[in-house]
What we know:
Layout (H helix, E strand, L loop, with lengths): L3 E8 L12 H17 L4 E3 L15 H5 L2 H15 L2 E4 L3 E3 L5 E4 L27 H9 L7 E3 L4 E4 L13 E4 L3 E5 L6 E2 L2 E4 L1 H10 L1 H5 L4
Parallel strand pairs: 1-2, 2-3, 6-7
Antiparallel strand pairs: 1-10, 1-11, 3-4, 4-5, 7-8, 8-9
Keywords: Hydrolase
Organism: Lineolata rhizophorae
Protein name: Carbon-nitrogen hydrolase
Amino acid sequence: MLPFYKIAPTDIHPSHSLAYSLQIEADYKKAAEFIESAAAQGADLAVLPEYHLTSWVPENIEFFELCDVWEEYLEKCRKLAREHGICVLLNVTYFIDNRGDIIENYVKKNLWGPEREHLSRSGRDRHDDLAFPEAFCDLIYEGAKIIIVPTFITVFFTSAGGRSGQGYAVLSQVTVPYIGALAWLGSCGEGMSMVDLDLGILDVAEEKYCIRADRCRPD
């Protein structure tokens, strides 16, 4: 039998302004509060959405300047993970374990349309790989049981939150075979779900549909 995990996907509304200073420290403190709350409720993993520290405002003169201090906030998240004994998925790039160690990092392969004007293909990590099923197939070949997709727009889906009427999707959720979404917030506001995830359902689905076995066949 595969294990149980308690997952905490979050919806966070980062500061968003073209004309005024971005509030990266305030956005970090907001994320830290979610991480601490998730740990206090016994979560194994807290997932933060893409651009949760800066939003996506490349026209703001501070945006790329703040990108240069990414290491400072990575270290802060590592410290939080270590102090509270919780794993953290940071933005799109880093998986931090409950000892504060970075056990995996990822560089986005496919850039979202508006990002291409500002980011090189080999540059900073962002979101749009969700649209390409090949990435999911590769993960299946390597034996992945959980796929995490932190995004700014809208599986295991963690999205940026925002104010009502501003077009934020806010569909952060954990989904499994047969059932679909186990939980989501259901509004455009900020918040966090606590989801008990039983991976045993994957064995049931694989026994019936043999999707992993068929995809991994050499022929």
